[in-house]
Amino acid sequence: MSHEAIQSILDERHESRFSSLRDLVLRTNISQPVMENLVKVGACDSFGSRESLLLELPDLLQIRHKVGIRTKPLFEYEQPESYVSNDAHYDSPKDKMLVERELLYLDLSAHPLDFCNLKDGFTRIKDLPTIATGKTVKIAGSVIRYQTPPTRNGKRVVYIVMEDGTGIADVTVFSDVQERCGSVLFQEGWLVVKGKIQRRGPKALSVIAQDLAPIAVGDSSSLSCPPSSTESIGTAN
């Protein structure tokens, strides 16, 4: 959004709250693409369903064009009338999440793992503290950060910070697993990790990885790492 569009909303909202999508469209100078994106990410959910608002929007913009608006940008991108598809679905949980990720780079209404077909046997990260030390678990999540601090014996240990929407987990990957799963380790943003629970204190819990695999949306239960040389692991990072 441009500064002018944001200021237009703030100025009008300072005068009075917006009562409907029609009220918002007619009182501001927001362009059609921006208005559509606001609807898609849920900024106008209090006015109705996203699908109905998107279908209503072109007519409201035509009305605004006829009656004129208070201020108009010097250059404004004109979106074709077919920009909003009549068969588009923006109210399903998955579609809401995809639009949020595309436009905001955030997952607000849902988490991608909510729509993965994770079979029985997976442990949510929030439940890891309830698992006994030494027990084998299988978790799935997105990689937040890699850490590869130097070690005294020269063998590199990779620490992964992962999240699954319920919590954050620390995963430790030793050299033997790096050799087998190096390509998966550094090239996949979403991982399935099988490993053992380790504790070094009351709150210092980590998962010692035994196997790594990419998340497969259709079936995430398998774990198989392709062969990978130590050299390829080094260059991947």
Task: Itemize the secondary structure elements and their pairings.
Layout: H1 3-15, H2 21-27, H3 32-40, H4 50-67, H5 93-104, E1 136-147, E2 158-163, E3 168-173, H6 175-187, E4 190-199, E5 205-214, H7 230-236
Parallel strand pairs: 3-5
Antiparallel strand pairs: 1-2, 1-4, 2-3, 4-5
Please give a structural write-up.
The protein has 2 domains: 3-110, no CATH class; 117-236, Nucleic acid-binding proteins (OB fold (Dihydrolipoamide Acetyltransferase, E2P), Beta Barrel). Strand 2 and strand 3 (168-173) form a beta hairpin. The protein contains 7 helices and 5 strands; from the N terminus they run H-H-H-H-H-E-E-E-H-E-E-H. Strands 1-2-3-5-4 form a 5-stranded mixed β-barrel. The protein is an alpha+beta fold and 237 residues long. The two termini are 36 Å apart.
Taking the sheet with the most strands, its summary is:
5 strands, mixed, barrel
Overall SS class:
alpha+beta
Q: How many domains in all?
A: 2
User: Main sheet: which strands, in order across?
Assistant: 1-2-3-5-4
CATH superfamily of the largest domain: Nucleic acid-binding proteins
CATH structural class of the largest domain: Mainly Beta
* Radius of gyration, in angstroms, nearest whole number: 24 Å
Q: What is the N-to-C succession of helices and strands? A: HHHHHEEEHEEH
Termini separation? 36 Å
Mean pLDDT: 78
- Low-pLDDT sequence parts: 69-86, 219-237
CATH fold category name of the largest domain: OB fold (Dihydrolipoamide Acetyltransferase, E2P)
What is the overall shape?
elongated
Query: How many distinct helices?
Result: 7
